[in-house]
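Meet our chain:
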Amino acid sequence: MLPDIIELLKRFNWIIIDFSSDDASIKIISSGSTEQSIEIDVSSKCFDLIAKKEDVALIIKYMENIDNFTKEKSEELANIAHIFNAVPIMIGEKNRNGALNDDILYNRYSINAINFATFTNILENKEYPRVYSKRGGYFVQLKQKEFKDLRQSRNLSLNDLAKKLNVTPKAIYEYESSSMKTRLTHFEEMAKIFKYHPQEFLKEFSETIDIFVKLYKTNYNMIKELSGFQEEIDQRLIDLGFITYWFNKSPIDMSFEEESRDAAENNQELVIPKSRTVFISEISSVKEAAVVDLKKAIQRTEKKLENHVEFLKKFSQVLDKGYDMVVLLDNNLFQDSSNVHGVPIVHESEIPSDASKLKKIISERKI
């Protein structure tokens, strides 16, 4: 299925970064189907593809059975999407109840999930789903004004329609005045009452669901067991007032940013401030290496960092989302350097006690 997804995206001129290979090869597929392969070691991933077109960036995970996608991976996927101001989408074929239906939006731990036919319909015809699958069945969001006008044009009171649907008048009132969703079975009964074909009624009186809108919530919790050096860096960044994100199954080590925690603490939908500054960081240390192996450990680590940073620069050029890259290292690595491939290096001993000073160091060392 992944080759089909890639071909579909290519057909509509999306730029693609393909992480799906089982080896260390990552492909960047740009317009005109030009491909560039990069060798970089990325462990088991929480996503397969990143696709970008104009101002929309998608982070795509394919799962034959969407119920096999773990909570840990979904949380990491949501955090990655937040960092890159992208939309996470899962494309699958089935769940525990059977095949995923066309033009229906499913959900797995806050990540939107659809089948390939639905994704194709969105890209080819800009036809978005209108039906949600949630615990308890299928649901539809009514167009409030249009539905109210229809009811009144048929001289039906709230009580009249409520009796026909075997619901309370308050439920009908909520359908017409709030974001309360109606069960698909009730919606289909409404189509019969108003003498519409079900599909025609669905198109005329239900809201579409734009899967490119960011409806997910970020997970601000630590989702990785940190090593001693990582834990030290994490605490120092937190003390400076940053929010940190650490990753197990993504092409970056961690990210940090200055942002209000209000939305996370109040469990609200994600709001991204216009002035938001995101730092994407590689974190490396050879502190734990044995003394006799220290020189070789330094050489291996520096070579790996060079390859990884070079990839991240290409990665950022594709996404173009206005974040800054930095490499945070212990004092043994790149001792005489202030940047690697133009990406600023900040050694642990150089991390100041003020966030603005750290940002100034990063800015001054950027090439």
